[in-house]
């Protein structure tokens, strides 16, 4: 059976814990990950999670320099199942929506779109401006899944991990990755 391969982009938006948790889940499932982190993403990981890029290397199969637009994931001939950008800054969303491939992360997203592969974007901003919403609508019309970092509470979270896990679980659902990160709604109240 062919090994699953997912590209993971991490930007400087708040919510690095989502990316870290997602990478841990993928590693535990032996899913090959190709990670690219923006410069501000590295800073936010350090600030919010107190981890460095070397810590991320424990969970990623491959890590690429965001300035290396010649890396494997910049080409349509590099086969991947999907790309997930989490957290995703509004700058990155605007770049992708405008077709601006000014770094490896936005180039990999552009390739994912042109190759008609699954792209999941997890914006972390509030409130959304009309510009943010228009950019996300443009991407949604292209078939890109937008999953704002807006956790539900029907599973009665007790910890921050519970809140993070419902969001990571929703991302996994989009990629058809089986998990038990949260209790699913059964309709019983």
Automatic annotation (TrEMBL):
Pfam families (alphabetical): Flavoprotein
Residues at which FMN binds: 12-14, 38, 89-92, 124
UniProt keyword annotation of Transcription present: no
Domain Flavoprotein: start-end pairs: 5-175
Keywords: Flavoprotein, FMN, Lyase, Prenyltransferase, Transferase
Reactions catalysed according to its record: dimethylallyl phosphate + FMNH2 = prenylated FMNH2 + phosphate
GO molecular function, one term: carboxy-lyase activity
InterPro entries recorded: Flavin_trans-like, Flavoprotein, UbiX-like
EC numbers: 2.5.1.129
Keyword Lyase: yes
Gene3D superfamilies documented for this protein: Flavin prenyltransferase-like
UniProt: dimethylallyl phosphate binding residues: 154, 170
Function of the protein: Flavin prenyltransferase that catalyzes the synthesis of the prenylated FMN cofactor (prenyl-FMN) for 4-hydroxy-3-polyprenylbenzoic acid decarboxylase UbiD. The prenyltransferase is metal-independent and links a dimethylallyl moiety from dimethylallyl monophosphate (DMAP) to the flavin N5 and C6 atoms of FMN.
NCBIfam families tied to this protein: PRK06029.1 (NF004685), ubiX_pad (TIGR00421)
HAMAP family, per the entry: ubiX_pad
Family note: Belongs to the UbiX/PAD1 family.
PANTHER family: FLAVIN PRENYLTRANSFERASE, FLAVIN PRENYLTRANSFERASE PAD1, MITOCHONDRIAL
Annotated protein name in UniProt: Flavin prenyltransferase UbiX
Taxonomic source organism: Pectinatus brassicae
């Amino acid at each position: 059976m062919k090994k699953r391969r997912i590209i993971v982009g991490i930007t400087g938006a708040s919510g690095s814990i989502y990316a870290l948790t997602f990478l841990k889940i993928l590693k535990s499932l032996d899913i090959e990950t190709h990670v690219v982190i923006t410069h501000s993403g590295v800073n936010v990981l350090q600030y919010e999670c107190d981890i460095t890029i070397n810590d991320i290397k424990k969970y990623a199969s491959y890590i690429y320099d965001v300035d290396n637009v010649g890396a494997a994931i910049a080409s349509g001939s590099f086969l991947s199942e999907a790309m997930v950008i989490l957290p995703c800054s509004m700058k990155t969303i605007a770049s992708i929506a405008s077709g601006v491939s000014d770094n490896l992360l936005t180039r990999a997203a552009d390739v994912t779109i042109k190759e008609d592969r699954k792209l999941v974007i997890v914006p972390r901003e509030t409130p959304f401006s009309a510009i943010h919403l228009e950019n996300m609508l443009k991407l949604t019309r292209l078939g890109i899944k937008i999953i704002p970092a807006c956790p539900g509470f029907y599973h009665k979270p007790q910890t921050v991990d519970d809140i993070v896990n419902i969001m990571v679980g929703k991302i996994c659902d989009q990629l058809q990755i089986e998990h038990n990160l949260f209790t699913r709604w059964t309709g019983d109240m």
